[in-house]
Design goal:
Blueprint: H1 18-28, E1 30-31, E2 34-35, E3 50-51, H2 56-64, H3 68-81, E4 85-90, E5 98-99, H4 105-108, H5 116-130, E6 133-138, E7 143-147, E8 152-157, E9 173-179, E10 191-193, E11 198-201, H6 221-239, E12 246-249, H7 256-270, E13 287-290, H8 295-298, H9 300-315, H10 319-322, H11 325-329, H12 333-359, E14 369-374, H13 382-404, H14 409-418
Antiparallel strand pairs: 1-2, 3-8, 4-5, 4-14, 6-7, 6-11, 8-9, 9-10, 12-13
Length: 453
């Protein structure tokens, strides 16, 4: 295998980038009669290696740190995702019992002062913002380090000689990672890392790349920007006297100097929150007309609520769980329980499975086992644990009934676990005592009596 020896243009994902969105919204997006600019910046270059989506900083600054809905959704994901702990799972006869060894201490204290929760919270934050998280195992200092994703480049190699190959060839594979503080071209010392030193977590594959993941925020960039624009509109509504927009027609006889002086007086007396709700007096034949709409007419709750729901759907977190308005409007105890189960089953458990499998790259399990997660102490999933307990109780009763009916115990266990009665084998014995037909039981001897004192 070899590294790329010269710069080659790799097919890039042709998604609507943050810069494209910003430029488009400058001329296309109008809300409440006002135009808005997204103001989102990013840098996306073409490199010979397959880079991760280089929009981490833009997503962090312009979405996560500047939008309350995104911050709330990522916060819910981080808090839930960081609740589990890791164990080995016996796989000798299929998924078996969980057990621990001292090798798991590296996950329990990944770096000085940190816990498994700190490690998982940082992984989830990077996955949300960049679609990728990279965990480096530093054997020299016996610790883990979560690498900033936009400073990591995936290096792909092939056995094919020459330049006529691409990262999509059948034998192309990841042969390492390059970590450079500040990113490629920033002047930081670039370090090459082997695949067995780095766990790459990318739960949402990028459809336009072979090896990197995609942020769940990418499909909802329009909603994020529109939500910010609506919030800014509300702010401007209150900053500009908390009243509808007015168009004022003045008589043609008024001079420019008179108009300028008059406008100055009006703004001094009526502009701003402090002057809100004062009676506005016009003179000199001025004719005011309302051309805007107030907050009730715009119905901001509905306008922003629809965008919030789409953002929540992309994140995998139900609106009711994140405390968003549209989710709370329809909230009941039943709805909340269903939402929690959906979040746990459709997002949390798959995410934990993916992360456990990825971390095996830097923490090989003992023979016949795999790295797995233990969610038994996660309060968010306690409803699921209660249901699991009830199911186990019913399974236990089924096992007893089948054994009492004369089926072989070892086949009963397999049949109940697989939900397949075809696996049952009968012992040929009947009744509770499982005696052969016509067989006489052994006589029962009476208990010895003690002699009276």
């Amino acid at each position: 295998m070899k590294l790329f020896s010269r710069r080659r243009a790799e097919p890039e994902a042709q998604r609507f980038s943050l810069d494209d969105l910003s430029a488009a919204l400058t001329t296309q997006f109008r809300y409440g009669g006002l135009g808005y600019t997204a103001g989102l910046n990013t840098t996306m270059g073409t490199r010979e290696q397959e880079p991760i989506g280089n929009s981490y900083e833009a997503y962090a600054r312009s979405a996560y740190m500047a939008n309350g809905i995104i911050f709330a959704l990522v916060g819910v994901r981080m808090r839930l995702f960081s609740e589990v702990r890791f164990q080995w799972q016996d796989m000798a006869r299929g998924p078996g019992k969980l057990f621990g060894t001292t090798d798991l201490a590296l996950l329990e204290q990944p770096w000085p002062g940190a816990t498994t929760g700190d490690l998982l919270a940082r992984i989830e934050q990077h996955v949300s913002l960049a679609g990728n998280a990279y965990v480096y195992r530093d054997d020299r200092r016996n610790r883990l380090k979560v690498l900033r994703p936009d400073w990591v480049t995936i290096v792909i190699g092939s056995h094919v000689q020459g330049e006529q190959w691409t990262p999509y060839d059948l034998d192309a594979e990841v042969i390492g990672y390059i970590y450079q503080p500040g990113g490629a071209g920033a002047g930081g010392r670039a370090v090459t890392l082997l695949p067995e030193q780095v766990a790459h977590i990318a739960p949402q594959p990028d459809p336009m790349a072979e090896y990197r993941g995609m942020s769940w925020m990418t499909p909802v960039l329009t909603e994020i920007t529109a939500d910010k624009a609506a919030t800014e509109h509300k702010l401007k509504f209150f900053e500009n006297a908390a009243t509808p927009n007015l168009a004022v027609t003045y008589p043609k006889e008024i001079t420019a100097d008179q108009l300028e002086e008059y406008l100055k007086l009006v703004e001094e007396d009526h502009q701003g929150v402090v002057n809100a709700y004062k009676t506005l007096h016009f003179g000199g034949g001025a004719d005011p007309k309302v051309i805007g709409a107030d907050m009730k007419q715009l119905d901001f709750k509905v306008t922003q609520g629809a965008g919030e729901t789409r953002m929540a759907a992309a994140s995998g977190i139900a609106p009711i769980v994140a405390g968003l308005s549209e989710g709370l409007d329809a909230s009941t105890y039943s709805n909340m329980a269903q939402a929690r189960r959906a979040v746990g089953d459709q997002w949390a458990r798959p995410a934990w499975r993916n992360t456990a499998g990825s971390l095996q790259q830097i923490l090989p399990p003992p023979n016949g086992s795999r790295l797995w997660y233990d969610a038994s102490d996660v309060a968010f999933l306690q409803e699921d644990e209660k249901d699991a307990s009830e199911i186990m109780g019913k399974d236990a009763q089924t096992v007893r009934n089948l054994v009492d009916a004369g089926f072989k115990p070892e086949t009963v266990k397999s049949a109940v676990k697989a939900q397949d009665l075809e696996l049952l084998e009968h012992s040929g014995l009947y009744s509770v005592q499982l005696q052969k037909p016509g067989a006489q039981g052994a006589p029962v001897e009476p208990a010895p009596q003690e002699a009276p004192a």
